[in-house]
Design goal:
Structural class: mainly alpha
Number of strands: 2
Number of domains: 1
Largest sheet: 2 strands, parallel
Order of helices and strands: HEHHEHH
Helix content: over 70%
């Protein structure tokens, strides 16, 4: 006996769901790269509401909702980490002179140099 057609239909992937998740992950990974992760965080936070609206209009048609939610949470975490890192770098560069920063870097490298 053949099944009805509506049971054989697969859900469509939600547009940009995977990209939102990947950008959310990248925003965390790049948080220590002088704020580059902010670009990915903002891009994710701009794309996520449209994907959520698309899903909420017809949830029976789309799959990938959890990827959008996870990517959005990761983007928020990445944005916070990027802002903290940029604030720390601003503090370092306004508190110390360039010579002091270079000396700290040299001491750090000498301390962990493998002999």
């Amino acid at each position: 006996m053949e099944q009805p057609n509506f049971l054989q239909e697969e859900k469509q992937p939600l547009p940009n769901a995977t990209l939102i998740l990947v950008f959310g992950i990248i925003s965390i990974v790049l948080c220590c790269c002088y704020g580059i992760g902010i670009v990915f965080s903002i891009a994710t936070l701009v794309m996520a509401p449209k994907a959520l609206r698309t899903y909420n209009e017809n949830p029976a048609v789309y799959k990938g909702y959890q990827n959008v939610i996870t990517g959005r949470i990761l983007a928020i975490i990445g944005l916070i980490l990027n802002i903290i890192y940029i604030g720390f770098m601003i503090y370092i560069f306004t508190t110390y002179t360039m010579e002091e920063i270079m000396m700290m870097n040299e001491e750090f490298l000498q301390q962990y140099q493998i002999e």
